Every structure is written in C-alpha cells, then in structure tokens.
TrEMBL record:
Any single GO BP term: carbohydrate metabolic process
SUPFAM superfamilies (UniProt xref): Glycoside hydrolase/deacetylase
Taxon lineage: Bacteria, Bacillati, Cyanobacteriota, Cyanophyceae, Nostocales
PANTHER family: POLY-BETA-1,6-N-ACETYL-D-GLUCOSAMINE N-DEACETYLASE, PTHR34216
Gene Ontology molecular function: hydrolase activity, acting on carbon-nitrogen (but not peptide) bonds
InterPro entries tied to this protein: Glyco_hydro/deAcase_b/a-brl, NODB_dom, Polysacch_Deacetylase
Localization of this protein: Secreted
Keywords recorded for this protein, A-Z: Signal
Gene Ontology cellular-component terms listed: extracellular region
Protein name: NodB homology domain-containing protein
Amino acid sequence: MEYSASTNQTSDRTIAILSFHKIGEPPPNGWESWFYIPETTFVDHLTYLQKNNWQVIDLATFLQGLTTPEILPKRSALLTFDDGYQSMLTTVVPLLLKFAYPSVIFVPTDFIGKHNSFDTDCEPEEPICTWDELRQLERSNVSVQPHGVTHRAFSYLSLAEQEEELSRSKATLEAGLKKPVDIFCYPYGDDGQDPQTIKKVLQRVGYQAACLYGGDPVSVAEASANPYRLPRLAMGPDTDLQAILNPEAVPSVVFQS
C-alpha cells in the first residue's frame, strides 16, 4: 500500500476525550461518590497531560480536526465536564487557567440556575450554573454545549422526544449565550435504540458531533468516521490515566503532586 504525505501526517494521530463531573469535596451534608475527584488528583491528571506531550485543544480545533486531521497534534486531549455544576466555576476554572487549558461543559438546559434533581438519591444535591455563570465560563475559555433539556436517557424516549431534546437544548443555549453550539452530549452516554436515526436528526438540527460516556482514546480516523458516537474516558478518583493513555507501558515522565 502506498501512503501519501497527508496519510503519513494523520495516521498516527490520537484523540483522548476526558469526561469529568465534579472536582473537589461534596457539599455539606453530602456524601462521597465516584464522580467526585479530589483537586490534587485532578491536578495530577492535568500534569500528566502536560508532561507527556498531550496537547489540550479547544472545541473549535477539535471539530475542525474531524474534517481536517492534519491540523491536530499527534496526541490531542479534549477536556469535558458534564452537568454544569457551579463548582466548575469556583474550583475547576482556576486550575485550568494555571495550565492555560481550554475545556467544554455540557449543561441540561431545564436545570440552568437550579439543582441536579435528575440525580436525586444517587448523588448529593449540587447547584448548577446560572446564565450569568455560564457566560462567565465562556469568558474563561470553557465552551458551553448541550446535555439535553431534561437529562433523560434517550433509550426511554420516543423519537419525537429525542428530537425535542436535541433541538430545544441547542436553541436555548444559542439564544441565551448568543453563539452557535455544535456538539451534543447524550445524558448517561445513552444515544437510544437507533443510533443511525439519531445521527440523521443530529445532522438535520445542526450538530457536528455528539459524545457518549465511557471508552478509550481513538485515532483521528475513527473519530472522523463516526463523529456522532464519540467515546470519552470516564474519569474518577481511581482512574489510572497513565495506563489508559500509555497502554504499552512506554516509559513516561514521573511527577509528584
């Protein structure tokens, strides 16, 4: 097989989409869950990326790279955060700014300025960002994108309800933030019983990509071939990022928190 210069430039490019929920301690009267990552552990994750040649890219670069892979570095990382918790602004953004890292936050639009009642009895009650706080995140290089309207799993919705979740969440954020939104995150990583039909709806509504929950890093070619089912690394306090990003155990930089 003959390889062109462009093929050589893109065949070894890898994308790792990291998916976080909460950084820091649970609220008063709350409890620990797997979705809370201590700040020191989160800083270790960011430090590993920095010291091992993983370049954290912004959403615009990521989306452009799906159609123009040669613009991406050999190791690209996209940092994503689900649900829109206020701790993103108070805890996460100051840490990201120290590393000069951009990120993406996915917000269920019916819960803007409210609490995570979609997780009642599963997770402690946490406040979700208000509109003003979402605008502040945008100014801090955090791209706000849709996580549905009601945070319901698509497998339990009709096709009409799924389309409503996709179109209304997009329209709500675009109107409230005065900007286009381009990527969707399926609540619970559930894209329903018929991903091919959902793909067509996503395209018709105007999305360029959509994210699942769980999975491994992928090649740029794999991401480009199926941008509406993008896997994300589920990040928790015990996630061994080095083992995931360096499965062949190539010697890497050792760091201490």
